[in-house]
Amino acid sequence: MYRYRYLWIGALLFLLFLWTKKEDNPISFTSGSSNPAAESLDFNHLPAQDKDRPIIVSTDEKIHMEVFEKVHRAVVNIATTTLGMNFWMEIIPRQGQGSGFVIDHDGYILTNNHVVAKAQKIVVTMTDGQKVDATLVGRDPRSDLAIIKVPPKAVQAVAILGDSDTIRPGQKAIAIGNPFGLSHTLTTGVVSALKRSIQTEDGIQIENLIQTDAAINPGNSGGPLLNSNGEVIGINTAIFSLTGGYQGIGFAIPINRAKEIATQLITSGRVARPWLGISGIGMTQDLAEAIGLSVNEGVLVVRVIPGSPAHEAGLRGGDRDVIVGRIRLRLGGDIITTIDGNPVSDMKELVNALDRFRVGQTVTLSVVRDGLRREMDVVLTERP
What is the number of alpha carbons within 13 Å of residue 291 lying toward its C-beta? Predict the structure, then answer.
């Protein structure tokens, strides 16, 4: 009898022990949870310094965010409609996309020529999603630049144009545009190189471009390339790619060049370029030895166009034909060595040097004639 009494007392003590352990455990279990303890935790009771901990932003990240906030409202999406023909020779509309940025409060937008070339309709999408019809002011295929215009009331912000003559390789480069129609996409990189040249699909050679590794894809064309101050240093124009997408090499037109082109497009709708009115070939050491000349660098003038600036200044072309190897050359003309003190070695350098001047300006040519050096002043006129 006493033996059973002790068993009952032991059982009661064990039940009392279990009941006290349940009271000490504040975690309640919820059916269907793989981690019931985690679901019952109250995060509102965490210390304030953990809950309200500030986001740590690096200096580099801060630059990117500030540039985006400063510039993105001036960047626009450009959608164009052109007319083409399908397989059955039916005329059908085709859509294109690109980028651009507002350069003044009157509504002028700078973009690439290839973005708006042959467009029958141009629609600009602003930062807030507003779609506005734009008009073509002027375009210049040779520089691949164009100006379009929207009503001034649609302008939300204006981009600040920087100085591309001061940039150096290694400097930060930030691109904002609409790649593949994804509006206001920011990519970053550096200025990889300067004074690059590319040839467009139309066979036009564009010189003195900025090379960057900031990601540029189809749809970025016409958008701004920016420095760390948010100033435009270039217009994103082309990429080198074996696949059609980004492969680390992009090209931008320097903004200082674009300023000159934009001014002429806005004021007259076209770009007036100066010319000399000559044809010629670049001198080389081999050529100089073959024809018995002492000058081995410069442009040998083969022909002077009557009535041209070169003709009016008295520049002389070739007067006799000779065969050098299997090539017929016309010799006897002047050899141009410099333009306003800038050396030239072939016709490409000559044309690029002339592009730095305006119609009506007077330039000084250093030439070699009959073995003697002389200087000649030429008043530049507009290329026909």
Answer: 23
**Nearest CA-CA partner of 360 in 375, 345, 334, 382:** 382
In which element (H, E) is residue 341 found? none
What are the structural domains, with CATH classification, of the chain?
69-154 (2.40.10.10), 160-268 (2.40.10.10), 274-382 (2.30.42.10)
Tell me the residue type at 57: V
Collapsing DSSP to helix, strand or coil, 270 comes out as: coil
Give, for 337, the enclosing helix (H) or strand (E). strand 335-339
Phi-psi sector, 6: left (phi>0), alpha (psi -120 to 50), beta: alpha
Rounded distance between C-alpha atoms, residue 222 and residue 380, angstroms: 31
Q: Could you say which DSSP state residue 242 is in?
A: S
Report yes or no: 194 and 207 within 8 Å, Cβ to Cβ. no
Give 106-148 pLDDT, tens digit per residue: 999 999 999 999 899 999 999 999 999 999 999 999 899 999 9
* Cα–Cα distance measured from residue 237 to residue 183, given in angstroms and rounded to the nearest whole number: 17
Residues known to be catalytic: 114, 144, 221
Q: How many C-beta neighbours within 10 Å does residue 122 have?
A: 25
Alpha-carbon gap, residue 177 to 74, rounded angstroms: 11
* Pair of tokens at residue 293: 């000349």
* pLDDT 10s digits, 178-207: 999 899 999 999 999 999 988 877 777 888
